[in-house]
């Protein structure tokens, strides 16, 4: 009788251990089973920009025909760059272009600090490419030496030695003038300085000169010289992104060129098609 009871107890204990083991195995299998939830997708730079909803572009707001106020600062910004870049960014879903006015000398520092996403009318140089990623060019021009018609002693860049030229030593044009021995005058409005003979010359690009000949016949200007080097203008972005913002801009710019919008804006602001 005792033996039978002992055997029964052993049988019960054995079955309990088997059941417990099966239960533990099921738990382990459940814990080891892969998750059915897909891994989270990493946000791209373009995704982050769309979350913000706007692409902030720095401008002085005093540079016709690219970005300026017609008939006073109380009027909205207009110009070739304003209309072109607005058209391009409007083709990037979820992104609105915003133009923020600032002093030229503080723009690159503002870009580095994240106050702007980019700056318009920036020439692409090897030095700048080391620090910034650039979009595809949206404008190509040539540095042009502009003087009053009555100025007879400036007919080449070499003639700038000892002359006063409007510009900043942080700009391509200012550095170009300095390389020929000119004295830079960084303060004031360029055309007023030239008109009042407080500078002997200004340097901008050939497209700007075309616009001046059309809009300011009162100044009686001439192009004393034009540099052979192309000035390639594109939007700079701080390095560190994954290229998706640049790619989106490039694709939208391509569509603006292909459907004829670029040519229409070019003729409107420069009197001819500058897309070559």
Q: At the fourth CATH level, what is the homologous superfamily of the largest domain? A: Periplasmic binding protein-like II
Named at the architecture level, the CATH assignment of the largest domain is 3-Layer(aba) Sandwich
Overall mean confidence score, pLDDT: 87
**Record field, number of beta strands:** 16
H/E element sequence: HHEEEEHEHEEHEEEEHEHEHEEEHH
Task: Indicate the low-confidence ranges by residue numbers.
Answer: 1-23, 25-30
Beta strand %? 15-25%
Regarding quaternary structure, what we see is single chain
Radius of gyration, in Å, reads 32 Å
Compact summary:
The chain is an alpha/beta fold and 276 residues long. Helices cover 40% and strands 21% of the residues. The longest helix has 31 residues, at 2-32.
